[in-house]
């Protein structure tokens, strides 16, 4: 029959680029960075670890974050990941830091780098790692889909990979791409291979 005159095409939402912190954005782990700072500044506090851990890993991370001043400028960032994020930010991509680190530390790192539009992190009760992270990202980005840059396949379940997402997992020798699903993709496999 006829067409609607003056109708605008539906806006296609671009997937959000979600980036892991530990082992991806930085070489190493924020939890261990906190432990090292605590060893240097207040070593006897480490005796409280077992008690904090009784309430779960997210609680332990919260207790550490409350007692440690971690300087984001001194973390061992991966330059190739920073370069990728700066390139994507310049292209107008929305970027989220999605980490199992405590929110206080994740927010400090996000503020220091100035690259992230959103921060999703452990909150003292929920450890945002593995299946918890996969479930959160799948639900939070159900409308837009997401792309994931991380070092652990456990953070992106097969169920999540089927929903307009794909993962890029940095190995020990290189940051490489792996695409685990169909859906909306603005990027091509060859463009994202980053040698470490």
Keywords:
7 strands, alpha/beta, 7 helices, seven-stranded mixed sheet, Rossmann fold, 17% strand, 196 residues, disordered C terminus
Entry summary:
The chain has helices at 30-41, 49-53, 57-67, 79-90, 103-113, 131-140, 158-161, and strands at 16-19, 95-102, 118-122, 146-149, 165-170, 174-178, 194-195. With 196 residues, it is an alpha/beta fold.
Q: How much is the average pLDDT?
A: 80
- Find the CATH superfamily of the domain at 16-27 and 77-195: HAD superfamily/HAD-like
| CATH level-two architecture of the domain at 16-27 and 77-195 | 3-Layer(aba) Sandwich
Percentage beta strand? 15-25%
Structural commentary:
With 196 residues, the protein is an alpha/beta fold. The chain has a domain at 16-27 and 77-195: 3-Layer(aba) Sandwich (Rossmann fold). Helices cover 33% and strands 17% of the residues. It has seven helices and seven strands. It has helices at residues 30-41, 49-53, 57-67, 79-90, 103-113, 131-140, 158-161, and strands at 16-19, 95-102, 118-122, 146-149, 165-170, 174-178, 194-195. A seven-stranded mixed β-sheet has the order 3-2-1-4-5-6-7, sandwiched between helices. α1 (30-41) crosses α3 (57-67). The longest helix has 12 residues, at 30-41.
Reconstruct the topology from this structure:
Layout: E1 16-19, H1 30-41, H2 49-53, H3 57-67, H4 79-90, E2 95-102, H5 103-113, E3 118-122, H6 131-140, E4 146-149, H7 158-161, E5 165-170, E6 174-178, E7 194-195
Helix pairs in contact: 1-3
């Amino acid at each position: 029959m006829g067409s609607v005159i003056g109708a605008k095409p539906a806006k296609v939402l671009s997937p959000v680029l979600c980036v892991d912190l530990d082992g991806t954005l930085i070489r190493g782990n924020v939890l261990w960075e906190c432990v090292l700072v605590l060893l240097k500044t207040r070593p006897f506090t480490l005796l409280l670890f077992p008690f904090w851990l009784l309430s779960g890993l997210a609680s332990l991370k919260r207790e550490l974050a409350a007692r440690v001043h971690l300087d984001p400028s001194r973390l061992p960032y991966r330059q190739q990941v920073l370069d990728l994020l700066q390139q994507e930010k310049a292209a107008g991509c929305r970027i989220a830091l999605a980490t199992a680190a405590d929110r206080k530390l994740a927010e400090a790192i996000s503020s220091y780098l100035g690259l992230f539009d959103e921060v999703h992190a452990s909150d003292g009760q929920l450890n945002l790692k593995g299946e918890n992270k996969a479930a959160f990202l799948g639900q939070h980005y159900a409308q837009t889909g997401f792309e994931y840059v991380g070092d652990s396949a456990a953070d992106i379940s097969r169920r999540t990979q089927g929903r307009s997402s794909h993962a890029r997992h940095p190995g020990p020798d290189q940051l490489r791409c792996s695409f685990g699903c169909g859906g909306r993709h603005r990027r091509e496999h060859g463009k994202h291979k980053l040698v470490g």
